[in-house]
Structure formats: C-alpha cells, structure tokens
Amino acid sequence: MLQIESKLPAQGVTIFSTMSAMAQRLNALNMSQGFPDFPAPPALLDALAQAAQDGFNQYAPGDGLLSLREQLAQLFWQRDQLHLDPAAEITITPGATIGLFSAIQAIVHAGDEIIIFDPSYDSYAPSVKLAGGIPVHIRLTAPGFHVDWQAVKDAVNAKTRMIIVNTPHNPTGAIWSKQDWQQLIELIQDTNIAVLSDEVYEHLIYDGQRHYSALSFPELRERSLVIGSFGKTFHVTGWKTGYCAAPAHLMALFRQVYQFTNFCGVTPVQMALANFMTHHPEHIAELAGFYQAKRDLFNAGLKNSRFQFTPSPGTYFQNLDYSAIRPDLNDSAMCQHLAEQHGIVAIPVSVFYQQPPENLRLIRFCFAKKDETLQKAGAILSQV
Q: What are the UniProt keywords, alphabetically (predicted)?
C-alpha cells in the first residue's frame, strides 16, 4: 500500500468549514464565516456581466490587468501619498490567501524563523511550515490585543527572516497605531527581516481612526509586502480576487513563485472591478461608515444580554466575552452550545492560537450581514 507522510500532519479541516457546515446542518443563523449575506453593488454586477459579454473571457496578464493595478496605485496615492509603479510593484492574485502563501514561499528558506502574532489567521503558520520555516508565535496582550514589544525583541535573532503583521486584525478587530509601526521600525531597521503585512480589512476602520499601511513608512518601504482583498472591500468574497503590493525587487521574487501557484486571476472579474472603481470612488469612501453602522446595530442588540464586549475598532468581526454566562465551557464548547441550543453559529477565538490561554472565553461574530440578520442575532443572544 502506498504510504506518503503528510507535510501538515496536525492540520485538519478549517474551523470556518466546520462551523458553516454546522450552521447548514442545524439550519442555524450563520454568524461565523466572514462573508456578507447582502448583495454586491448592482453597478459592480452590471460591470461583470458587461465584461463577459464584451468578450473578456480569456487569460488576463499573469500579473493582473494593468487598469486594475492602476486603480490600486491611485488608492495608495490618495490615502498614503505613496507612489507605486502599477507595472512593477502590484500583482493581482486570485484571493488574498494565495498572495500570503506566495509571499511566504518567496522569502522564507528552510530554518528561517517567522514571527506570528496570536491569535492569527490560520493560513500563516502552515504556509511557513511548507516553506521549511519555523513559526514563532507571540501572543497579543488581551483585552486590547496589543503587541508586547519586549516579547518581540526577545524573540528576534539572527534566524528571524520575517514578521507577519495583520491590521486591522482578524479575529479581534485591533488596529496598529503609528506608534506600533515605529516600534517595529526601531526593532528591525538594521536587520535582514522582511515584513508581510496582511491588510485585507484596510478600509474597515471605525470611530475616526485611520489605517497605516506598512508601505507608507519610508523605513519599511523596501522590506515590506502588503496583501489586500477586493472581496472584503466590495462585498464579493466569492470572486476570490486580491493583490500584493511590494517594492520591485521583492515583487520580482514574489512573481517567481506566484507564476507557478496560479497563472492569472479571473479576467472579467478584474475588468468589472477596474470599471467599478473608476466610476464609483464613493464606494470605498463610504465603506467605514457603512460597516460601523452595522457594528453599532449588532452591539445595540446586545444591550440587554449578558455578553461583555468592547466595540471592534476594525474588520467586520465583533468578539463577545461570555464569562458571565457559561464560564465552565471553553469557547469551542460554547459555540457548540449556541448552535445546538440557540440556533446561532460563531467562531471560537481559541482556534486562532497555537496555544490558547486557558481562561479564554471569547467568540467571534461576523456583522457583515443584513440589518434584519443583525437584529435577529441580537434577539437570540439576549436570551442566552
């Protein structure tokens, strides 16, 4: 019998697939996986149909349609006064996860150590391991989930090759301040450490705060790769379209790997996005306010509940602390209880850790939902 050893022996099915399957099986309200239950902008859907009808159905350039890359470069200029060369410094990818994977494969060699802040998106560590690297997990400091910079300094050594940043942060919504970035700059400015910055929720920041991209800091400009997502920004997660932005010398390394993980992104999707961004700049300008209203509606529905929380600073996720309700249950058991007994599905935050804290009592809800879905969720949770 053929025997092949797994490269990821401890890796099972992702929690997102597990919880979505549970929601379907129990006919429960699915507040777990991060996708909207409302439609995409009609003009964007019209642009997709038009692109397909106009014949844009064959291979796009491997690095992405130049018109879409130019729209991204314009966004970086408007927000950060950062000039990016669309041809040499931006690549369109079929989703952000493959961008993360390709960046890690391009930079990480066997034996390199990669710093990952826990809780963390579940693709980081497996991608590092597949490249032969060694994930070094550092816990963010609860309840605000800030970086313990002394712990980072203690972890950095000659083998450290990359630090993975995620801001706004999934699953907690925390955002990096300018001071955080300055701390990172001071720590790595005289090293050979690259920065991989996962910024897929870059436009979803609330309460008047702002997003700082890794590339916006001159001291990090030549050592950083930024990953973004059109799916998060335009309510089309199923279109699986993202991007990588990086200085030309790092982009060359990225493309060497990327060309063998995927030939190109979907052509009519790229055409539609470029068209929509050209004619509807108000969409991104209004996005933070749109989602902040949904966050506030969801949280308002919890005012009579026993859950405790701080409004999420970013992303479209809200964490709830259930310590006052069922402290005897760990978060996975609590999610199981909510699904089976109350008909609502969330994500246990512990799955985002290599080694979760024993007293963690947090569960994650997605508020990228219709208002009626959010109101229904609030009514259910207020009865728990």
A: Aminotransferase, Pyridoxal phosphate, Transferase
pLDDT digits (tens, 9 = 90+) for 98-125: 999 999 999 999 999 999 999 999 999 9
Report the C-alpha gap between 283 and 233 in whole angstroms. Answer: 9
- pTM as predicted: 0.96
In this prediction, residues 163-187 reach a mean pLDDT of 98
Rounded to the nearest angstrom, the gap between the alpha carbon of residue 251 and the centroid of all alpha carbons in its chain is 20
Q: In b/e form, how buried is each residue of 280-308, taking b as 16+ CB within 10 angstroms?
A: beebbeebbeebbebbebbbebbeebebb
Region(s) of the chain under CATH 3.40.640.10: 42-279
- Which two structure tokens, joined as six digits, stand for 14? 């992702």
Looking at the chain, the domain(s) classified CATH 3.90.1150.10 span 15-40+283-381
- Interhelix angle 267-279/282-300, nearest 10 degrees: 90
Q: What's the pLDDT at 11?
A: 78
Strands of 242-245's sheet, edge to edge?
90-93, 242-245, 224-229, 194-198, 160-166, 113-118, 134-139
pLDDT score for 298: 98
**Tell me, which fold does domain 15-40+283-381 have in CATH?**
Aspartate Aminotransferase, domain 1 (3.90.1150)
Q: How far apart are the first and last CA of the chain?
A: 51
- Average pLDDT over all residues of the chain: 96
